[in-house]
Every structure is written in structure tokens, then in C-alpha cells.
Specification:
By secondary structure, the protein is of the alpha+beta class. It folds into two domains: 162 residues, Aminopeptidase, CATH 3.40.630; 91 residues, Glutaredoxin (3-Layer(aba) Sandwich). The chain is built from seven helices and 13 strands. A seven-stranded mixed sheet has the order 1-2-3-5-6-8-7, covered by helices on one side. The protein has a four-stranded mixed sheet with strand order 11-10-12-13, with helices on one face. It has a two-stranded antiparallel sheet with strand order 4-9. Helix 5 packs across helix 7. It is globular, with a radius of gyration of 19 Å. The termini are far apart. 41% of the residues are buried.
């Protein structure tokens, strides 16, 4: 493990975001960067924070994004808790070095300093969310399970209400035809939306696109991940970023079933 005095944690703000970048996308000329930057600036006013972990050469090791849970862009219900949108230590060689724990410590300190009762997070063994082990090692407990997702919490005020999943499955039936709902919480979504639209045109289908622009819309999303939802006739087909090739395969399968 590197010496902790060789590690620094940088808080990303609207003022330094172009200098520090958004970790997942570092090229500020990338359209996805600008979409996420605009989303980040708006959410910053709502309490969203991002911290990037660097070594003494300024190499990025990992990052964490968190927000008061009542403003979280996930279908959860929680009060007076901090919610972790994302946590990642990027390189495999940097994992199991205590960096994830260091980032979680920062969030706990901030939650305590603002009078919150604890911290919560969603996890999954699938794509785009951390595995629960990093949280369990820090004293988080699994409170709920739904589909591929788990909801965990660590509270220092034991009388505080537990966070809960909202019923995203109940939201799915309203989406007739082909629908893609997304938010720029992830900087890669814009690229995926463009690719999926092009594929839809190739297959001569109408893919209705809706950008989720408020936390209320995200909490009412039809999937657990919340910020990326691909549906066909009330059925959720994918709940995270997907490639052009993956969408082509989905379309072929769905259209074959309709024949």
C-alpha cells in the first residue's frame, strides 16, 4: 500500500471541473464531458459532490460521487442519509490497497459534519455499480434486495429510518412501444443514445427518447439503476449503458419473437 502522505483527495467543483475532469471522461472536448459537466453543475447546488483520489504524481486512482439521499438519482426513498452514486478504483493493480476505504471515509466524515444519520448505497454484481464487498468491509449492512440490486446502509444514529427501494417494476407498464430514458449522470450515456438512435433507424423502428432532467423523474424511473432504461412494450430490456452491437442483438431477438 502506498504511503497515505503520498495520496491526495481532490474535490471537484464547478470552478475546477475542466481542470480536474470528471474521472470517467477526461477529455473535455468529448461531448459526454460537457453533458455531464452541465448536469454536475446543476446537481452541485443540490449537494452533489465528487472527489478524485490521486497519487503524488497526479495520477488518478479512483473517485467517488455522493449526494444527499433525498436528491439521489436512483429509485430509493431515504431521509437524512448520504447516498453514494458511484465509487471506483480504476486500475486492477490499485485495488485492494485501501483506496476505496479512504474514499468512503471522506463521505462518512462529510455526512457526519452535515448532521446526517448515516450513508447508503446501491450495489450489484452486474455492470455499472460496485460490488457490495467494499461496503460490507466498512460496516454497511444489506437492507433490501430487488432484481440484481442490493441496498446497503451504515447508520450511526440507529433510530433513523432505513432507506427503501421504490417500486420501479410498477413503472414499466406505461411504456408502450420502444423507449429509452436516460440521464447525464453518466457521461457515456450521450454516446450510447446516439448509437441506439442510429440502430433504431436501421431497423425502421421508432425509439422514443426521454432525458431525465429532475431527481423526481429519476426516482420514478422504470429500473433500479434509474439513469438508463431501455424498454419495449412495458418490458425492461436493459438498465445500463449498452453498445450499438448489443442493441442490434436485442432488436433482432425482440423482432424475431414478434414474428
Amino acid at each position: 500500500m502506498q504511503k497515505m502522505n503520498a495520496i491526495k483527495i481532490i474535490e471537484v467543483t464547478p470552478q475546477n471541473v475542466k481542470e480536474e475532469t470528471l474521472f470517467c471522461v477526461k477529455d473535455i472536448a468529448n461531448p459526454g464531458f460537457e453533458s455531464k459537466r452541465k448536469w454536475f453543475v446543476k446537481r452541485y447546488e443540490e449537494g452533489l459532490r465528487m472527489k478524485i483520489l490521486k497519487d503524488n504524481t497526479d495520477r488518478m486512482l479512483g473517485f467517488i460521487e455522493h449526494i444527499p439521499a433525498n436528491k439521489a438519482w436512483r429509485p430509493i426513498q431515504a431521509d437524512n442519509l448520504m447516498f453514494i452514486h458511484c465509487i471506483l478504483v480504476y486500475s486492477k493493480k490499485d485495488r485492494n490497497q485501501g483506496y476505496g476505504s479512504l474514499l468512503l471515509n471522506e463521505v462518512e466524515k462529510e455526512a457526519k459534519s452535515t448532521g446526517m444519520s448515516g450513508v447508503c448505497a446501491m450495489t450489484s454484481k452486474g455492470a455499472w455499480l460496485a460490488d457490495k464487498s467494499i461496503f460490507e468491509n466498512k460496516g454497511f449492512e444489506v437492507l433490501a434486495k430487488k432484481d440484481r440490486f442490493e441496498l446497503l446502509s451504515k447508520k450511526w444514529e440507529t433510530t433513523a429510518a432505513d432507506p427503501k427501494f421504490m417500486n420501479w417494476t410498477a413503472q414499466q407498464a406505461q411504456y408502450k412501444g420502444w423507449h429509452l430514458l436516460y440521464a447525464n449522470q453518466c457521461p457515456w450515456h450521450e454516446k450510447s443514445v446516439e448509437a441506439l438512435l442510429n440502430v433504431a433507424m436501421d431497423f425502421d423502428i421508432e425509439l422514443k427518447i426521454k432525458e431525465l432532467e429532475t431527481v423526481q423523474e429519476a426516482k420514478a424511473a422504470p429500473s433500479g439503476f434509474g439513469v438508463f432504461n431501455l424498454l419495449h412494450d412495458g418490458k425492461l430490456l436493459e438498465d445500463h449503458y449498452l453498445s450499438e452491437t448489443r442493441f442490434r442483438n436485442i432488436l433482432k431477438k425482440e423482432l424475431q419473437e414478434l414474428e
